[in-house]
Amino acid sequence: MTLRCQPTASHFVNGTPFEDEAGAPFDVIYPATGEVIARLHSATPAVIRAALESARAAQAAWAARTGTERGRVLRRAADIIRVRNRELSILETFDTGKPLQETLVADATSGADALEYFGGLAGSLTGEHIPLGADFVYTVREPLGVCVGIGAWNYPTQIACWKAAPALACGNAMVFKPSETTPLCALWIAEILIEAGAPAGLFNVVQGLGDVGAALATDPGVDKVSLTGSVPTGRKVYAAAAAGLKHVTMELGGKSPLIVFDDADLDDAVGGAILGNFYSSGQVCSNGTRVFVHRRIKEAFLNRLTERLADAVIGDPMDEATSFGPMVSARQMEIVKGFIASGTGEGARLITGGRQIDRPGYFLEPTVFADVTDDMTIAREEIFGPVMSVLDFEEEDEVIARANDTVYGLSAGVFTRDLTRAHRVIGRLQAGSCWINTYNLAPVEAPFGGVKQSGVGRENSRAAIEHYSQLKSVYVAMGKVDAPF
Ligand code: NDP
Fold first, then answer.
1. Confidence band (pLDDT; 50, 70, 90) for 1?
2. Pick from 79, 141, 389, 419: CA 20 to 30 A from residue 468's CA?
3. Which residue among 41, 228, 255 has the greatest number of ligand 1 atoms within 8 angstroms of its CB, and so is best to mutate?
4. Domain for residue 4, yes or no?
């Protein structure tokens, strides 16, 4: 099973696997066992140059195809991904440690959705006609040129496709750098795009750490940078892009509120809190990690939550019965253990979990703290692990103010049977992606992204088109030129 993990080459450039062993080697580790499953090389300046040059060379001819032709390639790629979903999901599980039960339905399939959706839109990307009496203006929707995508490690296949699909649909080319923790799946997506009919150079993958991302973000030949990552990295990449006045999309971190009113369906609210804290072992940017529960139902909520968490099947991620897997890396596990220690140290009540599980790999127990207060570190900082903080509240105005008291603004959720209240509260929450009576569903048809320090721009939906294209406006005079002299 592990054989497929070692790719033919570290990078994918100009339509083919591409190696340069002069680049610093790094190992890919299967998080469920700690075993090395592949060894890759970081991109050298020569690899980066080759990738950018091939993207530039491919872009103009690609943009000159009709939208329908471009869309057909993307939709074919979506079909191929669906046929290979199981193999891709197994590779994603090796890369990330996420249970196969999840990767089979949430990763390659979500990438295929994006390719299908933007493939369908490609033929309908048009400008408009603006009448001005006898004269008129028309607008042309043009691509930006060469886009750089930089990914986080939690959803490597999905992130590659969420960035590539709108970029390519609009007629751009892309150079994608996966996180060095999870470099494998993007290479396969690149191969599939070629198989689907994309020209060589249209979608390139280069590997490496932050320095490779930084080299791409500062390159004068790059027109746009789209990052999925943490806020600190976002600041650096945004600043680097600003120096060249490049377009940006920033999908960054969060510390999102999930508010459970006392009239909520308790089981649904508990289910939403589980989805919003423990899916992918809590390594999801939009997680509702500050769970505000009305004081009247707090103990009932905690009891039901504890019962449901006892049903988590923790273990071998390749076993489809497993519903909770390891953290992505030893480093991430140590970071999360530090947050758990701070929760206990600052006086939060540990309801369940809190320990590393005694088995190979990077397994932490699903952890719930109650009696968390707004000033505690676990209520302020993004943890990016399976740690839920439950906070009490009594009044609607109070909980809205506390929910908004953060530099982040990625997501928010409300559980209540009172739909008037649900819309009123959601209307006042400072967040880009919100849910009422569910949590963390992100269909490609809906815009996804954050406000405040959680991001700039939107992925998915028609909104993403605005971030991968620009308008040329053309004034057409039908009469004589009326000059003053
Ligand atoms: P990081 O911010 O550490 O890294 C993100 C990517 O940026 C990686 O590929 C990284 O390379 C690269 N990078 C690091 N430094 C630089 C730099 N100076 N210039 C250019 N690129 C750089 O995030 P993680 O990978 O640790 O992912 C977790 C974070 O991502 C969390 O904060 C999470 O909230 C956020 N996230 C946001 C999502 C959203 O849609 N809003 C979705 C998923 C995650 P390398 O890691 O190889 O060094």
1. very low
2. 79
3. 228
4. no
The domain that holds 218 is classified in CATH as 3.40.605.10
Residue-wise pLDDT for 162-216, tens only, equals 999 999 999 999 999 999 999 999 999 999 999 999 999 999 999 999 999 999 9
Instruction: Judge if 347 and 366 occupy the same domain.
Output: yes
Amino acid identity, residue 316?
Answer: D
Catalytic residue among 102, 116, 147, 163: 163
CA 446–ligand 1 middle distance (angstroms): 23
Summarised one tens digit per residue, pLDDT across range 145-154 is 999 999 999 9
Helix (H) or strand (E) holding 290: strand 290-294
Cα–Cα distance for residue pair 177/246, rounded to 1 Å: 17
DSSP 144-208: -SEEEEE--SSSHHHHHHHHHHHHHHTT-EEEEE--TTS-SHHHHHHHHHHHTTPPTTSEEE---
Whether residue 293 is found in the same domain as residue 399? yes
- Same domain for 366 and 222: no
Same domain, 188 and 310: no
Predicted pLDDT at 2: 44
**Which one of 161, 170, 285, 434 is the catalytic residue?**
285
Nearest CA to ligand 1 atom 16: 210
Range of the domain at 77: 11-253+454-472
Question: How far apart are the C-alpha atoms of 422 and 263, rounded to whole Å?
Answer: 11
In a domain, 335, yes or no: yes
Residue 285 sits in a domain whose CATH number is 3.40.309.10
Q: How far apart are alpha carbons 40 and 205 in whole angstroms?
A: 13
pLDDT digits (tens, 9 = 90+) for 341-377: 999 999 999 999 999 999 999 999 999 999 999 999 9
Q: Does 169 share its domain with 77?
A: yes
Judge whether 251 counts as a catalytic residue: yes
Instruction: Judge whether 5 counts as a catalytic residue.
Output: no
| Protein residues whose CB sits closer than 6 Å to any atom of ligand 1 | 150-154, 177, 179-180, 209-210, 213-214, 217, 228-230, 233, 236-237, 251-254, 285, 382, 384, 410, 450, 455
